Amino acid sequence: MTMLSSAPGGASVRGPVTPPPSALTTKRRTQGGVILAVPALVWYLVFMVGPLVAIFVIAALHWPGMLQPVSFAGTGNISAVLDDPVFWDAVRNTAVQLAVAVPLMIIGAYMLGYYVAQKPPGHRVLRYLLFIPGLISTPAKAMVFYAVLSPDGLLNGALDKAGLGSLTDAWLASPSTALGSLILLDVWSGIGFTAVLFAARLGSVPDEIGEAAQLDGAGHWRAMWRIHFPVIRDFVGVVTMLQFLWTLFGSAQNVLLLTQGGPGSSSTTLSFLVYQKAFIAADLGYSQTVGVALFLVGLAGLLTIRRVFRQNY
Amino acid sequence: MKFGRSWLPAHIFAWLYMVLLVVPLYYLLVSAFKTNDQIFGSPFSLPTSLSTANFTESFSSAHLGPAILNSMLVTVLALALTLVLAIPAAFAIARAEGRLGALVERVFSLGFLIPTFAALFPTFLLAAATGLFHTRAFMVLFLPATAMPLSVVILVQFMRTIPREMEEAARMDGASTFAVLRHVYTPMCMPGIATILLLNFLTFWNEYLYSLVIIGPDPDLRTVQVALPTLKSLTGTDYGILTAGTVLTLVPVWVVYTVLQKRMQQALVSGAVKM
């Protein structure tokens, strides 16, 4: 990767070439310098950090609609949320979604990325195609899936043709398959894009490592998991964190576009519940309380994934 | 032989996924040129004619024309603002020696942990409070903020590779701090600027949920990602029109990808690596 080599050193590493600056230039640098970062910092605090803090404030308010009077609710929202069976459905759905989608995506993508990085015949075509889900917007992906999974869509048509008409289903509108369809969409689009990331990272692992493994008579399976995996373990951890966050927070969009959380609450996820309570049910305190829960789940997940991928260090 | 028989399962696995990936996209593309009868009758056959009827129909029924212009407007202006904010900030951090610079850098890199989707409702309140609810202007102001952490961190790393001697030479000629930024640092970190432009082009063009809530459904203002799903309810189950509309929204991204494939993959990879 030229990109990786052209910007060497992480955020904490300074190039050894830097000469010790004289006192004069140091002073001038800090003076002229940090002020230039202020606009970006203000922007970032106003539009990103401010709203984030506001989630916690609104979670403590009783606010039954935009134009309704606001009052302090204390922990009232928390008990309202915990007593609501829909919330627990959403917790269960999110747990299922994360437990199925993230491991499938990461393991599948790692194996696929390893395969592509070995430069098998046709690897250029593979790389080009694998990347496509990373380019397509969420609404466009949802429309593709809608065309495939709707009652008279591609999948049911194919099943009919194959004489398996009894297996057809209204995939997105049936309680038993709605959540599964959403997970399928995550995995379908996640594997390809993640595999390209892994292939790129594996491409910068020195060839000698693989060659040494072959001389030792290690099979491909062993080379993949025992030799290459530990080398890029950190990177796998970072990508897992990203996919975890995207799946956890991003599911609101797919749910909104494809199932609206239904039928019933069979495909309501936590992030969709935040959206639905805020913009459809207008129960703002409830919505942001779930938002806080979502944030804490995200934080806990990040720390856990970090630990899992660092344990050998 | 490197790819001997033991690789057979790997070949099968990889190309099977490829088929699963390509079939829906192929279906999307060919359906855009067919009528509903043809789609149901022979979903995989090539279209019999390259009729653009579906495209014009989707274009007019979902008002895609103004929507594409709106998306371009928001994307271009937000990209410009991102650069205006991120380049000086990265310049300041890359050159700062003191503790303050390190602190500012740390604040930006923590931004990776802030999930943008979580704060949708408070952001909506902010839009309402500033009187910018249902405007494209708020998205132009808001999107660069979401892009700030990644853009600043990537640019800082590029700027750190620029030798100090370059600046000292310019200083000798009497260049001001601004002149150093403009004539030394900015030209020298063009690859970094290209990277963040590409990355942010993808995120800004594809942004959905915030555009939906903040710009709203007004056909004169909404972006293409908001307009697209309306085809589903507008046309009922006319898949030809739905798929044609979807294809239309993909064209700009696909063109950029095909022209800049290598660079874009590198950009996205570096985006993930820097986190």
Automatic annotation (TrEMBL), chain A:
<feature type="domain" description="ABC transmembrane type-1">
    <location>
        <begin position="91"/>
        <end position="305"/>
    </location>
</feature>
<keyword id="KW-0813">Transport</keyword>
<dbReference type="InterPro" id="IPR050809">
    <property type="entry name" value="UgpAE/MalFG_permease"/>
</dbReference>
<keyword id="KW-0812">Transmembrane</keyword>
<comment type="similarity">
    <text>Belongs to the binding-protein-dependent transport system permease family.</text>
</comment>
<dbReference type="InterPro" id="IPR000515">
    <property type="entry name" value="MetI-like"/>
</dbReference>
<keyword id="KW-0472">Membrane</keyword>
<dbReference type="Pfam" id="PF00528">
    <property type="entry name" value="BPD_transp_1"/>
</dbReference>
<feature type="transmembrane region" description="Helical">
    <location>
        <begin position="231"/>
        <end position="249"/>
    </location>
</feature>
<feature type="transmembrane region" description="Helical">
    <location>
        <begin position="34"/>
        <end position="61"/>
    </location>
</feature>
<keyword id="KW-1133">Transmembrane helix</keyword>
<feature type="region of interest" description="Disordered">
    <location>
        <begin position="1"/>
        <end position="25"/>
    </location>
</feature>
<feature type="transmembrane region" description="Helical">
    <location>
        <begin position="95"/>
        <end position="116"/>
    </location>
</feature>
<keyword id="KW-1003">Cell membrane</keyword>
<feature type="transmembrane region" description="Helical">
    <location>
        <begin position="178"/>
        <end position="200"/>
    </location>
</feature>
<dbReference type="InterPro" id="IPR035906">
    <property type="entry name" value="MetI-like_sf"/>
</dbReference>
<feature type="transmembrane region" description="Helical">
    <location>
        <begin position="128"/>
        <end position="149"/>
    </location>
</feature>
<protein>
    <submittedName>
        <fullName>Carbohydrate ABC transporter permease</fullName>
    </submittedName>
</protein>
<feature type="transmembrane region" description="Helical">
    <location>
        <begin position="285"/>
        <end position="305"/>
    </location>
</feature>
From TrEMBL, chain B:
<dbReference type="InterPro" id="IPR000515">
    <property type="entry name" value="MetI-like"/>
</dbReference>
<dbReference type="InterPro" id="IPR035906">
    <property type="entry name" value="MetI-like_sf"/>
</dbReference>
<feature type="domain" description="ABC transmembrane type-1">
    <location>
        <begin position="68"/>
        <end position="260"/>
    </location>
</feature>
<comment type="similarity">
    <text>Belongs to the binding-protein-dependent transport system permease family.</text>
</comment>
<feature type="transmembrane region" description="Helical">
    <location>
        <begin position="138"/>
        <end position="159"/>
    </location>
</feature>
<feature type="transmembrane region" description="Helical">
    <location>
        <begin position="106"/>
        <end position="132"/>
    </location>
</feature>
<keyword id="KW-0813">Transport</keyword>
<feature type="transmembrane region" description="Helical">
    <location>
        <begin position="67"/>
        <end position="94"/>
    </location>
</feature>
<feature type="transmembrane region" description="Helical">
    <location>
        <begin position="239"/>
        <end position="260"/>
    </location>
</feature>
<keyword id="KW-0812">Transmembrane</keyword>
<dbReference type="Pfam" id="PF00528">
    <property type="entry name" value="BPD_transp_1"/>
</dbReference>
<feature type="transmembrane region" description="Helical">
    <location>
        <begin position="12"/>
        <end position="33"/>
    </location>
</feature>
<keyword id="KW-1003">Cell membrane</keyword>
<keyword id="KW-0472">Membrane</keyword>
<keyword id="KW-1133">Transmembrane helix</keyword>
<protein>
    <submittedName>
        <fullName>Carbohydrate ABC transporter permease</fullName>
    </submittedName>
</protein>
